[in-house]
Amino acid sequence: MSPDLNPIEHVWDMLERRLRRAFYRRGIALLPERWEKVVENGGNYFD
Predict the structure, then answer these.
(1) Where in the chain are the domains?
(2) Distances (CA, A) of 13 to 8, 16, 22, 25, 36
(3) What is the pTM of this model?
(4) Rounded CA gap, 36 and 1, in Å?
(5) CA 21, CA 19: separation in Å to the nearest integer?
(6) Residues 2-45: pLDDT tens digits?
(7) Listed GO molecular functions (predicted)?
(8) Which residues are within 8 A (CB) of 3 and not within 5 positions of it... i.e. 6 or more apart?
């Protein structure tokens, strides 16, 4: 069977795309909160 026809590969590809989208959206949503922390700490986010 050709790897291109393996059904599980399509499932993994779909799952990976959905997870990337979810993490990207969450990251974008958290930007204002994280930026505020940077500003509050004088540019030191990890303090």
Answers:
(1) 1-46
(2) 9, 5, 14, 18, 35
(3) 0.52
(4) 53
(5) 5
(6) 556 688 888 889 999 999 999 888 888 888 888 888 888 888 76
(7) nucleic acid binding
(8) 9
Give me 3's structure tokens.
């790897």
CA dihedral 24, 28, 30, 32 (to 10 degrees): 170
Show the tokens assigned to 5.
């026809």
Within the chain, what is the greatest distance between any pair of CA atoms?
58
CA distance 11 to 35: 36
Backbone angles phi, psi at 21, to 5 degrees: -60, -45
